[in-house]
């Protein structure tokens, strides 16, 4: 791509002008996808604990709540350690990735384990609220990470 001296590269501030605000596409492109995918996949421990019966052995609702708390702390710590340019977007993406992975795992495993399709895929009206809930969970983790990063500066 050819650039002229008076035209800044994407992500750079123009000389004497207002700071560059990344577009949505730039923000998504600049995400650390290994971090997002890794943290989203890590959260699959939640359905794994449920499927294996460990949640029931520990006790409900304590086990799922404790698992969610621990995962949230791990997400926040990982986002703070990675110091992304957009921690809130990173956290939201982590929550969405987890939601999509959980949908896929549920769609694959429920027929094998129970003999019938169960979960949000069996009730498509539940997909959007499920993804929104997980996006909100990730956004809260991203917001906490953003606050911690700001406090460290």
Report on this model:
It contains seven helices and no strands. Residues 1-8 have low confidence and may be disordered. The radius of gyration is 19 Å and the shape is globular. The chain has one domain. Helix 5 packs antiparallel against helix 6 (87-114). The chain has helices at 24-30, 33-42, 45-51, 54-58, 62-82, 87-114, 127-152. The protein is an all-alpha fold. The two termini are 35 Å apart.
Properties at a glance:
0% strand; 7 helices; 153 residues; disordered N terminus
Q: Number of DSSP helices? A: 7
What structural class should be given to the helix and strand makeup? mainly alpha
The string of secondary-structure elements, in order, is: HHHHHHH
Largest sheet: none
Q: How confident overall, as mean pLDDT?
A: 87
Cα end-to-end separation: 35 Å
Determine the strand fraction and express it as a percent band.
under 5%
Beta strands, count: 0
Shape: globular
Helix content: 55-70%
Rg, alpha carbons: 19 Å
> Could you name the ranges where pLDDT drops below 50 across 5 or more consecutive residues?
1-8
- Domain count: the total is 1
């Amino acid at each position: 791509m050819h650039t002229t001296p008076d035209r800044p590269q994407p992500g750079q501030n123009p000389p004497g002008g207002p700071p560059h605000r990344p577009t949505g596409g730039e923000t998504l492109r600049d995400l650390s996808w290994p971090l997002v995918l890794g943290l989203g996949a890590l959260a699959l421990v939640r359905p794994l604990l449920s499927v294996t019966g460990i949640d029931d052995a520990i006790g409900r609702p304590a086990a799922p709540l404790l698992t969610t708390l621990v995962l949230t702390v791990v997400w926040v710590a990982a986002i703070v350690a990675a110091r992304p340019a957009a921690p809130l977007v990173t956290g939201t993406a982590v929550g969405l990735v987890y939601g999509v992975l959980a949908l896929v795992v549920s769609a694959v495993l429920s027929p094998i384990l129970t003999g019938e399709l169960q979960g949000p895929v069996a009730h498509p009206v539940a997909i959007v609220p499920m993804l929104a809930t997980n996006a909100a969970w990730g956004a809260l983790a991203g917001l906490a990470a953003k606050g911690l990063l700001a406090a460290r500066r």
